Amino acid sequence: MTEAWGAVVAALIAGIVAVAGSFIGVYVGRRQVRDEAQIEHEQWLRGQRQEAYAAFLAEWDKAYLGMRHEVARLTEQWETMENHGLDISPDEDDLEHAREFAERLMRPIRKVLERVLLLGPDAVDDAAERMGQALDVLRDAFVDHLAPIAQPRPAVRWPEAVRRMENARERMITVMRAEVRAAPTVR
Q: Which pLDDT value is given to residue 155?
């Protein structure tokens, strides 16, 4: 009878091991599928971020260069007028032109900024918000520079606004670079 019990116990142990092995196999298989899905999502998200970041920087640069070009063009025009003894006093039309010009340049940035903020992460969101603030300062300095009529607020001078904006852009590049260069990880 001991041999029969030995065979029964061995069969029971083999059955338990087989069932446990099946459960472990199912658990490991599900875990692997979940991990692969997460890595695939991280790769997709990184690609979306790369596109959004590139579009944001391109629109940012377009607005910034547009303002710089307009400042250079008008500065040259003012110098020529001054050399010929013409009056270069700004008026209300100059102020309105400067505001409209800056707004037209900044409008496309808002759309791509929303996408950057949607895709995150928080470090990029913070850097993007700082860039937005720097662009607002640049816009105000641009308007004040092109139409320097008495403003009720203290104006940031154009060169200082340019420096702030360029610093904000450098910080943004650093944060974006760290984000898109990081390999996807399994959490």
A: 60
> What Å distances lie between residue 5 and 1, 9, 45, 135, CA to CA?
6, 6, 59, 84
Beta carbons within 10 angstroms of residue 3's beta carbon: 7
Angstrom CA distances, 13 to 4, 18, 50, 113, 116, stand at 14, 8, 55, 62, 57
**pLDDT number for residue 150:** 42
Average pLDDT over residues 15-30: 73
pLDDT band per the 50, 70, 90 thresholds, residue 55: very high
The helix-helix angle for 158-181 and 122-146 (nearest 10°) equals 160
**Average pLDDT of every residue of the chain:** 78
**Which of 136, 147, 142 is closest to 109 using CA atoms?**
136
Tokens coding 36: 């692969």
Q: Please state, in angstroms and as integers, the Cα–Cα distance from residue 149 to each residue in 94, 138, 143, following that order.
A: 9, 17, 10
- Determine contact, residues 109/165, Cβ cutoff 8 Å: no
124 has pLDDT over 60: yes
Q: Residue 13 burial (CB < 10 Å; 0-12/13-18/19+)? A: exposed
pTM more than 0.85: no
What is the sign of the dihedral through the CA atoms of 64, 103, 136 and 177? negative
DSSP state of 84: T
Q: How far apart are CA 107 and CA 31, in angstroms?
A: 46
